[in-house]
Write a structure and sequence with these properties.
The protein is of the alpha/beta class and 367 residues long. It folds into two domains: 197 residues, Rossmann fold (3-Layer(aba) Sandwich), CATH 3.40.50; 123 residues, N-(1-d-carboxylethyl)-l-norvaline Dehydrogenase, domain 2, CATH 1.10.1040. It contains 13 helices and eleven strands. α7 packs across α12. It is globular.
Length: 367
């Protein structure tokens, strides 16, 4: 481990595969056996693919859901509600939701789900306090290294602001990490048109306290998501799970965006497979210095990506649509953590620089 760095509690190799000790959250009981409880007031910030999917399922489970949304999505949800198309073809019209751009009017919530992308979070951070009462819990559903990563981390980096995702420190100031429950998003979904979300695959949203404790509030969040049909175990080391997903995202997303290739293409072409392995090895070194133990090996992680097949990563989809890629949280943050832990990352640096230029080209006005 990097000298001077120690986690609050040392992670175990299998920690991300198990529930926190003494914090088992079982499957939802049948409707007849379930103890009635008041609906939770839940604000979902963002009504894109993941925000729409999560909010719709929560509303279908009887929670009081308010979407904080703007533009065409706001008008569509206000007019017709939200349409959710599941991967088995089932179609749900969800009308028992509120859509607004007025955070003050929405008022304090029991739970706030941040479902915008990491690079969009600073723009809404100043409004989020309007949704928070004394006991409001905030669940972050961003990919990559989160802004709160070093909160309650332990060691000499404890409290460090991750500048690649929180460049001015405003997010940490406005959405205090003390409110946060960490979450890893595994499902894939897409926003077909404003107000219409299609679920592609997956239903797993593991959650965890930032210090690994088994609190009443993290159990409550897990139970709420589980009642909506998601798999939401409480993990004792949420950072390890974040790294496991990021391990592939920081590699395959930028390579796919640069080469316009699918996961299978990248994994089956020797040169890009070798590049992916080199990037993942560098990232693994950083993670190990920060006390993270991966529960799967590098080769198995690549094999898992290859098994997904001819799938376009989210970053490639963003590039093809002319949208800004989610670069800093997925790649820039790893470069930053490499510098903080004095880890040499030549392969990640090179791919990061190339993808930055691609993002700059996308953002430049066409002549």
């Amino acid at each position: 481990m990097y000298a001077g760095l120690s986690r609050v509690s040392a992670p175990r190799a299998a920690s991300t595969a198990t529930l926190a000790q003494g914090c088992a959250v079982g499957p939802p009981r049948t409707a007849a056996a379930r103890t009635p409880r008041p609906a939770m007031k839940i604000a979902v910030v963002g009504c894109g693919a993941i925000g729409g999917y999560v909010g719709a399922r929560l509303a279908l489970a009887g929670e009081a859901v308010t979407f904080m949304v703007r533009g065409a999505n706001l008008e569509a949800v206000r007019r017709e509600g939200l349409t959710l198309i599941m991967n088995d073809g089932a179609r749900h019209s969800v009308r028992n939701v509120v859509a607004t751009a007025d955070y003050a009017a929405a008022g304090p919530q029991d739970l706030v789900i941040l479902a915008v992308k990491a690079h969009q979070l600073e723009a809404v951070a100043s409004q989020v306090p309007r949704l928070c009462g004394a006991d409001t819990v905030v669940v972050t559903m961003q990919n990559g290294i989160p802004y709160w990563y070093f909160h309650r981390h332990g060691g000499e980096l404890a409290g460090t602001v991750v500048r690649s995702v929180d460049p001015h420190g405003l997010i940490s100031e406005l959405i205090p990490p003390e409110r946060v429950i960490g979450c890893v998003v595994y499902p894939a979904a897409e926003l077909l048109v404003p107000g219409v979300v299609r679920h592609i695959e997956g239903e797993r949203f593991p959650v965890g306290e930032l210090d690994g404790t088994c609190s009443e509030r993290v159990q409550r969040v897990s139970q709420c998501l589980t009642a909506a049909g998601f798999k939401s175990p409480v993990l004792e080391d949420i950072r390890a799970e974040i790294w496991l997903k990021l391990w592939g995202n920081l590699t395959f997303n930028p390579i796919s965006a640069l080469t316009r290739s699918t996961l299978a293409d990248i994994c089956q072409y020797p040169a890009t497979r070798e590049l992916a392995a080199a990037m993942m090895s560098e990232a693994q070194t950083i993670a190990h210095k920060l006390g993270i133990v991966f529960r799967v090996g590098l080769d198995k992680r690549i094999a898992g990506a290859e098994k997904v097949g001819q799938h376009k990563t989210s970053m490639l989809q963003d590039v093809e649509a002319g949208r800004a890629p989610e670069l800093e949280a997925l790649v820039g943050s790893v470069v930053e953590l490499g510098r903080l832990t004095h880890t040499h990352t030549p392969h990640i640096d090179a791919v990061y620089g190339l993808t930055q230029l691609l993002a700059r080209s996308l953002a430049a006005p066409h002549a």
